[in-house]
Design goal:
Layout (H helix, E strand, L loop, with lengths): L2 H7 L1 H17 L6 H25 L46
């Protein structure tokens, strides 16, 4: 299992663990307001998990995740980027034709 999926699958268990820990702290009178602690910590935890997922996805190397048959682990095939049509108003070859930087 790659790192991205492992982190993705741990999202809900981490939320439940946070909920249980704060509920226990409230029962022991360590904290006085459950919701005052829960929602900021929940937002921070979700942000950290999203950053960890993004970092794991950026480090994902498709060449290392091929199995012995040379196929991709979750189906599909590698693709190349499609060529984009030129959308600029001025063609790139127009610059440098005149001595004053391409203007006439």
């Amino acid at each position: 299992m790659n790192r991205y999926l492992m982190i993705h699958y741990l999202r809900w268990p981490a939320i439940i663990l946070l909920l249980g820990t704060l509920a226990l702290m409230r029962q022991l009178d360590v904290i006085s307001c459950f919701w005052c602690w829960f929602w900021p910590l929940l937002l921070i935890m979700i942000g950290v998990i999203m950053l960890a997922e993004r970092a794991a996805l950026a480090m994902f190397n498709h060449d290392l995740d091929r199995d012995d048959n040379g196929t991709w682990p979750y189906g599909g095939k590698p693709t190349t980027a499609a060529s984009q049509p030129e959308t600029s108003i001025i063609r790139t070859g127009d610059f440098g034709q005149h001595g004053n930087g391409g203007t006439q």
